[in-house]
Amino acid sequence: AQRVTQPEKLLSVFKGAPVELKCNYSYSGSPELFWYVQYSRQRLQLLLRHISRESIKGFTADLNKGETSFHLKKPFAQEEDSAMYYCALRSWNQGGKLIFGQGTELSVKP
Amino acid sequence: DGGITQSPKYLFRKEGQNVTLSCEQNLNHDAMYWYRQDPGQGLRLIYYSQIVNDFQKGDIAEGYSVSREKKESFPLTVTSAQKNPTAFYLCASSRSGTPDAFFGQGTRLTVV
After folding, report:
1. Using CB atoms, which residue from A44, A99, A102 is nearest to B90?
2. Do B48 and A95 touch (CB under 8 A)?
3. For position B99, what pLDDT does the model report?
4. How far apart are CA A4 and CA B4, in angstroms?
5. How many whole angstroms separate alpha carbon B110 and alpha carbon B48?
6. Strands A72-74 and B4-7: what pairing?
7. CB B24 within 8 A of CB B105
8. What is the number of helices (H) and of strands (E) in chain A?
9. Using one digit for the tens of pLDDT, what is the confidence trace for B49-101?
10. Where would I find the H helices in chain B?
11. Cis ω before B8 (30° cut-off from 0)
């Protein structure tokens, strides 16, 4: 079964603290994984994709096939990082649909 | 200004009525998708379309219908058969063969 799991509904940290949003997946084959972010009153938008190995807004995510994980990390959280974060897996058997996790709300306190 | 537009932003429906949510894109994307977003459940796929005049059911298609008569448009009808229609609905589009999905602002539907 293809599935994405984000075990934390809410993650609350103080400004300047490190952040790690967890994502585990289940997929037979070579996975294509993404992180999407939804800031308050804004549309859901792509944050980063594993294939690019990029760092966006200080966030990075490494695909660990052994642990089937794609955790999102940032060394020093900022208040403007407060948002809803969704991990997603691209499925090739339904039109390239994205399979989303349940989402994690990140709250960065001053 | 390229993008994907959903309307209306808020929609109220009486029980037993059908209602249609609009989704228009001017990105020249072939693929379009409808997702439903519920608290604690993430986003779930309702319907998708990879090409004009063709669409497929997603994971939770019961009680919904779509059409794809034009490349730019992919309206979703929530029928009276949908048992729990109150939700936030998101439309997305992507170019065929690419993974990036662009999302609309969403429509919040409330059944009263």
Report:
1. A44
2. yes
3. 66
4. 26
5. 23
6. unpaired
7. no
8. 0, 11
9. 999 999 999 989 999 999 999 999 999 999 988 888 999 999 999 887 666 78
10. none
11. yes
Amino acid found at A36: Y
Tokens of B10: 């808020």
Which phi and psi (to 5°) does residue B97 adopt? 85, -5
Per-state percent for chain B, helix, strand, coil, to nearest 5:
0, 55, 45
d(CA B4, CA A110): 34
What is the rounded CA–CA span in Å between residue B27 and residue A11?
35
Amino acid identity at A89: L
- Name the residue among B40, B42, B45 with its Cβ closest to that of A97: B45
Which pair of tokens denotes residue A65?
């096939």
Query: Mean per-residue pLDDT for B11-19?
Result: 90
Side-chain-side CA neighbours of residue B112 (13 Å): 5
pLDDT score, position B48: 92
- Closest residue in A to B94 (Cα–Cα): A96
Residue A80 is classified by DSSP as G
Residue A66 contacts B, CB cutoff 8 Å: no
Q: How far is A55 from chain B (nearest CA, A)?
A: 16
